[in-house]
Amino acid sequence: MLPNTGKLTGRTLFVTGASRGIGKAIALKAAQDGASVILAAKTAKPHPKLPGTIYSVAQEVEAAGGRALPCIVDVRDEQQIISAVESAVKTFGGIDILVNNASAISLTGTLETPMKVVDLMMHVNFRGTYLTSKVCIPYLKKSQNPHILNLSPPLNLNPLWFKSNCAYTIAKYGMSFCVLGMAEEFRNTINVNALWPKTGIHTAAMDMLGGDGIAVQCRKTDIVADAAYAILSRPSGFSGNFLIDEDVLREEGISDFSSYAVSPGHPLIPDFFLDDVEGMQNMAVTRDAASGQGSTPTKETGDVGKQKVDDESSDPVAKTFKAIQSFVTEEVVQSIKGLYQFELTGSHPGTWFLDLKNGTGSTGCGSAPSSPDVHMFLSSEDFVKMFTGHLKPTMAFMTGKLRIKGDMGLALKLEKLMGNMRPKL
């Protein structure tokens, strides 16, 4: 990992969304230099499911060697931001660095996204970033080497990143447009840059999106904190860049990233908005096969190998469902309690269902016997790849190959079940 160099000693950082995750990690990294950190976040009382409050993080910052000022801030509230900035200036004498980390996410399509959720993402991601920057800039301009760092992606206009979660992409890109505009507006005055992870980062948000098994496919927040530290240590004039954490650290001389992985050696999922996602996916499949974690489509194991597939089942989708049926038991039904319907396109289009809700469970061609809890839309080719371990469901969802409508909790339960099924498929 990247060692501290003392370059943030005596500096004051204003960090939004600092009660957990990436914001907290950046705050703690700066604290090791003795920096002062304003922890601007909403969480003042312990959450029943999410770790950390601004006060618990403040204790950690001080234990790491820094000074902390916890401030209750909802970045949608202009007065709360103004009050927090004024408190920061009064307490620490100014602000040198702003880290816009607060963000809201909903990976849903246009028809599935309520307007209140659209408004939330727009107000937190774009407006919150713009507003916090606007309030901090007069004080940043008084600093000797001021920085604004937005945790936002490169501006990639590939339609892939819009088609499945249009509102989120637009809202997140709003943070990136702030970088594009403000870097030019305040050129030679304030360094304004964006930082984005190359892979999934294990945070509470990622657990929410990917379920219990997602952590091993991610890196720790330390990699983003180290990259942020490197950027914020750079001199005046380094501005207008859209940076990827791994690239930043390579420039710092780091070539072995295994220590940043939650589970070193395990294949990693790429983050959104990066077009080399397919290359990373293929790499993950290769590594799975090399480590014995994946399955090959020509090899039959377990009960599937004992079954004689009828000639009419040469259809790979039908063959996959027949293999799935051999795995379905009353015990599985009791643990899942979900009814799934698959709408498949591609070379073998059709509607299929997987009933893990009623009786001893069943599969079949056609619509589900009653209203499904989860609809999944994808190509027949990707369906087969997904159930045989050659396409991770999380990857399919993130890249727009899989669209889900209905109960996301049950969708995540099915992903976990797939992991147990694959050795038999």
Strand content: 15-25%
Please report the distance between the alpha carbons of the first and last residues: 40 Å
Outline the low-pLDDT stretches.
277-313
Task: Report the mean per-residue pLDDT as an integer.
Answer: 87
**Beta strand count:** 12
Give your account of this protein's structure:
The chain is α/β, with parallel strands linked by helices and 425 residues long. 42% of the residues lie in helices and 15% in strands. It is built from 16 helices and twelve strands. The chain has helices at 21-31, 54-63, 78-92, 115-140, 160-163, 166-185, 204-210, 222-232, 245-251, 277-291, 302-306, 316-327, 330-336, 380-387, 393-398, 408-421, and strands at residues 12-16, 36-41, 67-72, 97-100, 147-151, 191-196, 242-244, 338-345, 350-356, 362-365, 374-379, 403-406. The strands form two sheets. It has a seven-stranded parallel sheet with strand order 3-2-1-4-5-6-7, sandwiched between helices. A five-stranded mixed sheet has the order 10-9-8-11-12. A hairpin with a 5-residue loop joins strand 9 (350-356) and strand 10 (362-365). Helix 1 (21-31) runs parallel beside helix 2, helix 1 (21-31) crosses helix 8 (222-232) and helix 4 packs parallel to helix 6 (166-185). The longest helix is centred in the N-terminal third of the chain and has 26 residues, at 115-140. The protein is elongated. The two termini are 40 Å apart. The model is unreliable at 277-313 (pLDDT under 50).
